[in-house]
Design goal:
α8 links the parallel β8 and β9. About 45% of the residues lie in helices and about 20% in strands. It has about 375 residues and is an alpha/beta fold. It has eleven helices and 15 strands. The chain has a six-stranded parallel sheet with strand order 2-1-3-4-5-13, sandwiched between helices. A four-stranded parallel sheet has the order 7-6-8-9, with helices on both faces.
Length: about 375
C-alpha cells in the first residue's frame, strides 16, 4: 500500500508539473503576443508620416521678447493638437528680425531640414521667405503688414491688415477732434506699407498730414527729426517703428520738452518700456481671446505678447490644411489652406481671402498703469 501511494503521489506530481508548464507556456505566449501588439501599435503611431514646419523668429536681439512669446505660442498650439492624421515636427530658427539672417535660416530649413512649411515674423523677413517658398513649392504663412508677402499660391498672410488698422486709426483721430498729424517712421517695408495706406485713408477727410520723417533703423540721434516735427506743430505725432528705436526717440522727445501727444499703429506694443507711453491711445491688431491669454499665462508665467496669437493660429492653419489633404503634398495642402473659412482662431472666426490674406478686426487701445488695455 505504501509503495502504491508513493507511486500515486509521484505520478500526480509529474502530472501537475506538466500542467503548470503548459499553463506557463500559454501565459508566456499570450504575454509576448500582447507586448508585440503594443509594440506594433506604438510603431504605427510613431511611423505616421511627418509634416515638418519651420518657424523663423527673433530669438536674440532687441526683439527677443516678441520671439520668445511667439515660440511659446507655437509650443502651446502643438501641445493642443490632439489626434491627427500626420505627425507635426516644429523646427525653430533665429533671425533676430534681420532679413539677412532670415535668408540663411530659410535656406537651412528648406535645404537641410526639408520642411514642408515656414512661418515668418514681420514684413522684412516675410518678404525674404516669400520668393523662396514659391521657388521650392513649400507653404509660407507670414505674420506681417506687407500684403506682398501673400503673393503666389504657396504664400499666405495672417495679421490684421494695414487697411483695417489705418481705417480704425483715422476714424478714432477724427472722433477725437484731431485735424493735423505728423508721422515719424522707420524705413522698413511694413512701416512703409502702413504709411502709404494712411495717406490713402485721409483723402477727402478733415485730417491733414503736415510732416513725414523717415529714418534708418538703428539711428541714435533723433533731435533734428523731432525739431522738424515740432516746427510743424501738428495736433498729434504718429510713431511707426520698433524697439529700441522707439524708446530712444521717445526719451529724446521728452528731453526736448515737446508736449505734442504721441500715438501709434501697433508700435507701442513693441516697446520694452510701455510706461513711456502711459495714458496714450493707439490702434492695434485683433486681440487674442481671454481664454488663450489666460492659458498662456498659466502655462508659461508670462503675458501673451503682440504677434503671438497669429503665430499660434498659423501653426493651426497649416495643420488644418494638411489634415484636409489626402497625403503630405504641399500643393494640395496650399490649395486646402486657401479655402479655409470660418476657422476658430485665437482672434475669433477667421477666413482666408482670395489673395491668401486673413482678415481680422483692429481695436483701439490705451496704456494704463503700464498695461495694454482695449477701450474700443
Amino acid at each position: 500500500m505504501l509503495f502504491s501511494e508513493i507511486n500515486f503521489v509521484v505520478h500526480n506530481f509529474k502530472f501537475m508539473y506538466k500542467t503548470q508548464k503548459i499553463i506557463l507556456g500559454i501565459a508566456l505566449v499570450a504575454m509576448v503576443g500582447f507586448l508585440s501588439a503594443c509594440d506594433l501599435n506604438s510603431t504605427s503611431q510613431s511611423e505616421k508620416p511627418i509634416v515638418k514646419i519651420g518657424v523663423i523668429l527673433p530669438l536674440i536681439g532687441s526683439q527677443a521678447n516678441l520671439g520668445e512669446s511667439a515660440k511659446n505660442s507655437v509650443l502651446l498650439a502643438q501641445e493642443k493638437l490632439g489626434k491627427t492624421k500626420f505627425n507635426y515636427q516644429v523646427i525653430f530658427e533665429d533671425d533676430a528680425m534681420d532679413p539677412k539672417l532670415t535668408s540663411n535660416a530659410a535656406s537651412k530649413l528648406i535645404n537641410i531640414d526639408k520642411v514642408n512649411a515656414i512661418i515668418s515674423f514681420t514684413s522684412g523677413p516675410g518678404n525674404v521667405v516669400t520668393p523662396l517658398a514659391t521657388e521650392n513649392k513649400i507653404i509660407h504663412t507670414g505674420v506681417a503688414s506687407d500684403p506682398n508677402i501673400a503673393k503666389g499660391e504657396y504664400n499666405f498672410l495672417h495679421w490684421t491688415t494695414p487697411q483695417e488698422e489705418n481705417r480704425v486709426w483715422v476714424q478714432e483721430a477724427i472722433k477725437r477732434g484731431i485735424k493735423s498729424f505728423a508721422i515719424i517712421g522707420a524705413n522698413q517695408q511694413g512701416v512703409l506699407a502702413t504709411i502709404a495706406d494712411v495717406k490713402n485713408q485721409i483723402v477727402g477727410k478733415d485730417l491733414k498730414l503736415v510732416d513725414e520723417e523717415l529714418f534708418n533703423m538703428g539711428t541714435k540721434d533723433y533731435k533734428v527729426i523731432i525739431e522738424k516735427v515740432k516746427e510743424k506743430n501738428p495736433d498729434i505725432v504718429l510713431l511707426e517703428m520698433f524697439s529700441p528705436d522707439l524708446e530712444i526717440l521717445t526719451k529724446q522727445y521728452k528731453e526736448l520738452g515737446v508736449e505734442i501727444p504721441l500715438t501709434s499703429i501697433e508700435s507701442f506694443e513693441y516697446a520694452d518700456q510701455p510706461s513711456l507711453f502711459e495714458g496714450l491711445w493707439y490702434v492695434q491688431s485683433a486681440q487674442a481671446s481671454d481664454e488663450l491669454s489666460n492659458e498662456f499665462q498659466k502655462r508659461f508665467n508670462i503675458n501673451l505678447n503682440v504677434g503671438s496669437p497669429y503665430v499660434y493660429d498659423n501653426l493651426n492653419l497649416i495643420v488644418a490644411a494638411y489634415e484636409r489633404a489626402e497625403e503630405i503634398n504641399n500643393a494640395e495642402a496650399a490649395s486646402e489652406l486657401s479655402q479655409i473659412k470660418d476657422f476658430s482662431s485665437a482672434v475669433g472666426k477667421i477666413s482666408v481671402g482670395d489673395e491668401g490674406i486673413v482678415w481680422s478686426e483692429a481695436v483701439v487701445r490705451e496704456i494704463k498703469n503700464g498695461k495694454f488695455v482695449t477701450i474700443k
